[in-house]
Amino acid sequence: MTSTLEPTLRIPLLLLGSLLLLTPACDTGSDWVTQSTEVESLALTPTEPHLERRLHVVARARPDTGAKISVLHITFETEPRWERPEAGGSDVHPWYRVRLVDERDGQVVDERVTVFGEGSTPDSLSVGPDVDIEDEISRFEATYRLELDRQGPPSAGTLHVNWSVITEALTDADDLERVEVLLTQP
User: Fold this and answer.
1) I need a surface site. Which of 5, 90, 133, 172 has the fewest CB within 10 A?
2) Whole-prediction pTM value?
3) Domains plus CATH for the chain?
4) What is the pLDDT of residue 89?
5) From the first residue on, what is the mean pLDDT of each consecutive set of 10 residues in the chain (186 residues)?
6) Distance (Å, rounded) from C-alpha 175 to C-alpha 59?
């Protein structure tokens, strides 16, 4: 049987057919269980340059399900915005630092710093722990302290910060209803 396709079309069509066959083979059978907090707005001023928030994170299999978690991502997202003083303020631009502390051992697990400049404001600064899961687990629990700091005097103005947390746990697609992520502020 001879092919009626031109030789120049044969190879691209074979490649396309191969890709279509490979796509279902790439499905790992895993999916993400996601939970996030509401966005909270805070204000840091030169006279009150430090704020802290605590968050207790639990990612777990529901009782008697046998479900496992293979990857866990926890991201604390902050969106700082500097409001300059209306008049008579300093020319000093404030720095802003977000730090994440694991309260289980008191260690700083991540930190980001920026300085507000002329016309440049960072959209967001994110921090998060490296959750090392070597083998699949059925439970993870930790309390984190989010520390927000800004430069005090002589910098002026108010630093408005919106913050939230998103947590994602990877599990088998069949176990999505069997895994839960709980985020609470103690």
Assistant:
1) 5
2) 0.80
3) 33-184 (2.60.120)
4) 66
5) 54 51 50 94 95 97 90 96 79 92 97 83 90 90 98 89 96 84 95
6) 13
User: Which residue type, as a one-letter code, is found at position 148?
Assistant: L
- φ/ψ (deg, to 5) at 87: -155, 150
CB 102 within 8 A of CB 109: yes
CA–CA separation, 145 vs 130, rounded Å?
Answer: 15
What is the identity of the amino acid at 111? Answer: E
Closest CA to 170 of 143, 142, 140, 150: 140
Report yes or no: 157 and 86 within 8 Å, Cβ to Cβ: no
